[in-house]
Amino acid sequence: MRKWTGIAVGVNLLLGIPGVVPVWMIWYFATNGPLASLGWTQREPTENDGILPMLLIGVPVLTVSVLLWVLANWPVRHRTTLSWWRYAPAALLVTLIPTFTLMIIL
User: pLDDT category, 1, cuts 50, 70, 90?
Assistant: First the structure.
């Protein structure tokens, strides 16, 4: 089972590289939408298209990303000793490592 733990980490690290895009899209939507409406952030001055373009692009990208993540992790999780409720948060945190790395570097 130790071999599959390493494979799970590798799969999620690799999924985290293109996973930077959906995380960025969620952040962009949140800062220009709900958080700006609450006064917690300032809107991008050139962002005057409204919410529809963000939803038309963001929803399909997020849907494909989540489906890809679940489909890639499902067979790997069955070969480990962890339950889904323990495996999924750990896999999600490993998937976010590239995003956190970019946040620190940039």
Answer: low
The answer to whether 80 and 1 have CB atoms below 8 angstroms apart is yes
State the Cα–Cα distance between residues 61 and 72, nearest whole angstrom: 16
pLDDT in tens, 3-62: 778 899 999 999 999 999 999 999 999 998 899 999 999 988 888 888 888 889 999 999
Q: Which two tokens stand for residue 43?
A: 């809107």
Place of tokens 């962009």: 28
Give the span between the Cα atoms of 45 and 36, in whole angstroms: 12
- Domain locations in the chain? 2-105
Q: Measured between alpha carbons, how far is 57 from 59 in angstroms, rounded to an integer?
A: 6
Residue with tokens 């070969």: 79
pTM score, whole prediction: 0.84
| Cβ contact 15:94 at 8 Å | no
